[in-house]
Amino acid sequence: MDIRQYIQENEPRFLDELFSLIRIPSISALPEHKDDMLACAERWRQLLLEAGADEAMIMPSEGNPLVYAEKRVSPEAPTVLVYAHYDVMPAEPLELWNSKPFEPEIRDGRIWARGADDDKGQAMIQVKAFEYMVREGLLRHNVKFIFEGEEEIGSPSLNAFLKAHQELLKADVILVSDTSMLGADLPSLTTGLRGLAYWEIEVTGPNRDLHSGHFGGAVANPINTLCEMLAKIVDEDGRIAIPHFYDDVEDVPAAEREMIARIPFDEEKYKKAIGVKALKGEKGYSTLERNSCRPSFDVCGIWGGYTGEGSKTVLPSKAYAKVSSRLVPHQDHEKISRLFVDYIQSIVPEYVEVKVTPMHGGEGYVCPITLPAYQAAEKGFTKAFGQKPLAVRRGGSIPIISDFERILGIKTVLMGFGLESDAIHSPNENFSLDIFRKGIEAVVEFHKAFGA
Amino acid sequence: MDIRQYIQENEPRFLDELFSLIRIPSISALPEHKDDMLACAERWRQLLLEAGADEAMIMPSEGNPLVYAEKRVSPEAPTVLVYAHYDVMPAEPLELWNSKPFEPEIRDGRIWARGADDDKGQAMIQVKAFEYMVREGLLRHNVKFIFEGEEEIGSPSLNAFLKAHQELLKADVILVSDTSMLGADLPSLTTGLRGLAYWEIEVTGPNRDLHSGHFGGAVANPINTLCEMLAKIVDEDGRIAIPHFYDDVEDVPAAEREMIARIPFDEEKYKKAIGVKALKGEKGYSTLERNSCRPSFDVCGIWGGYTGEGSKTVLPSKAYAKVSSRLVPHQDHEKISRLFVDYIQSIVPEYVEVKVTPMHGGEGYVCPITLPAYQAAEKGFTKAFGQKPLAVRRGGSIPIISDFERILGIKTVLMGFGLESDAIHSPNENFSLDIFRKGIEAVVEFHKAFGA
């Protein structure tokens, strides 16, 4: 049966299966969802078996378990390892959702739910393409699946798992659908990712909350101090002021900057879509360079003092921030992490104490466009979307992609089908049904081309 | 009966009565405590009647009701109006309390509870001194009481109440026990208070939370921006950078600076008590000047982005801060409020939108030491504490003290009995039983001297 017909006939079942996954709030950041993690892993195990895997199992790790499945065609054939993650981001702030985050709804040709795209929807594309290849007897290579449950918290247990199971996970290429395209009519393949470093900062001033009238003006306020320190991390030109931060950052090659400049990009439309009057970033670089090839620094969360209703006056004892930096290829996240800690400690004034805790991190990644699997992916996109995909670097981080290369020695092809409008990590995450269908077709064509 | 003997014989009852008030969590900042406000007001009404008032009543206002009571001795005699407040601050963070905030406990000669000092304990001093004067037939002047329930949220309904009841509240002097002394062995009377202005700042960047990987580096982060703006409010010399902020600030007169310099003050002990290695404040002023005669700026609360467990990466849509400035006499809080709003709007970068909401405010206050009621208070302290109290300016704000003067035309004498170690507004608020007893005696002696 033709793949398009197969999708048409089976779509209600595909969506039922996807919705059964979405309804499990597998939020890895919140310990109260431990049971949901297990339930979600188990549901994937069943679905992978039903899709045609010879075997599928739950494998323990130091943290949430992983789901492993495989379909062996021949010991001589090459092997594709499909990686995905079954955990999702927290759904807060809940009041901004138009429908419940864990009750998927279809409206305007889109699935609305946390995980609709990232990564349950995209993982389902892989599984349904695999199902078609198996049922139609078209598979010419072995396929393995490894789905983890800690991607959104930085995959703390994955490295140890990879090291412990190098033989099991042996493959010729890793296939991942967890990135996005330039647009619905502008298919693209991701050839570069940014790395990540993440820290929590705790500033302690006085040993207890003080009356701001009795002490204000004479005792340093840790929130004021935290703000002053955070304001010293990015300079006026949008450059990160940490000494040696840029030491390993390669200047973007002129050829690549030219290619980026050719990507159709409407800055006015981009600003309008996110509702800002002006953009801000590093001097000397374009928006597309700033959000993909250049490092960034963001305060992801801040809190301290009285944050309830009304107007309590207080000179608080403590203030906190969660901060992150997106890194580019060749920046070592552990080195950057140390540089950051050193920099913060070097600017701590004597009137507060500051603790900086590195939380997690990962390296950037580059995929060469000469890789046979990359070219198979390019063919898949071309057939499904009717045009050759652009090769682009993206600003997001999948720290484990570089870990795959480092630990398993395997390159990854990033066949991502998300759109910016999918609002992943935000309220009203959604995923286009049209893209879902085209995605399945693109992965089927990848398998055909890779097997040939 | 001698006042000391009276206190000794009646203390268990005094404490029972005080504890019955403390057990009512009359937190004005939290709307869910509306019923507690009414219960607390009613409890005071009963206690004022039992203490000897001719009548006591609950009077409605636009917000929480007030308790009014009076004892008329003679139409020709002067009148003392005792002001106090029955509301308390929120008790958060609860985990830092050694005993439950609304279950008073006596340990180490101190009462431990929210409101033990501010202002239930101090108000009880006034009521028990009044009770003694009435029962012993010593009262030679009229006494009125007005207890409000919104002091900790800036007394939003009091001005309208004062204007509506000028005749009822007519008096020669207002007596307030809601300030603190320099030390248990260093009695002092407060002759100056700082004013207050308070704002909430809302910074909006993108119209939704964004993925910090896909947008980070190209789109301004509202938390980073908020921190940068807050860092521009106090300059390197500890001066507030808002244009015209100091226009109406009087330089502290040389004579007063000399008096302040004579106040026994151990900076090392002060630092040790609050657990900081260094102090910070306006260049050119001493610590005691900085926290009493000079303005201050504090971020009382800040929040935005992901503040839960773990490490969510996000470029948030919004960031918030609650900020306040302590003002000195002659600074108009409404003018300062406008200057602040104008300044913030003048430094808002084009890539975010900022809303600044003035929350509440009040003027500073000065009490002349030549006032007869001040001198009666001085005598009261001298008898109770065995030494003449120092006249000092304090850094806290009771905005309504200047409103009393403006609206009712009455000066206030601030007979406060708190200690810095009482931890008002903080976890583990407490009040010394010894001070409680001496306070009652001091107020009794005030009444005797004032009536003479």
TrEMBL record, chains A, B:
Pfam families reported for this sequence: M20_dimer (PF07687), Peptidase_M20 (PF01546)
Chain ranges of the Peptidase M20 dimerisation domain: 191-351
Entry-linked SUPFAM superfamilies: Zn-dependent exopeptidases
InterPro entries: Cyt/Met_Dipeptidase, Peptidase_M20, Peptidase_M20_dimer
Key words, A-Z: Hydrolase, Metal-binding, Protease
Name listed for the protein in its UniProt record: Dipeptidase
Species: Phocaeicola faecium
Upper lineage: Bacteria, Pseudomonadati, Bacteroidota, Bacteroidia, Bacteroidales
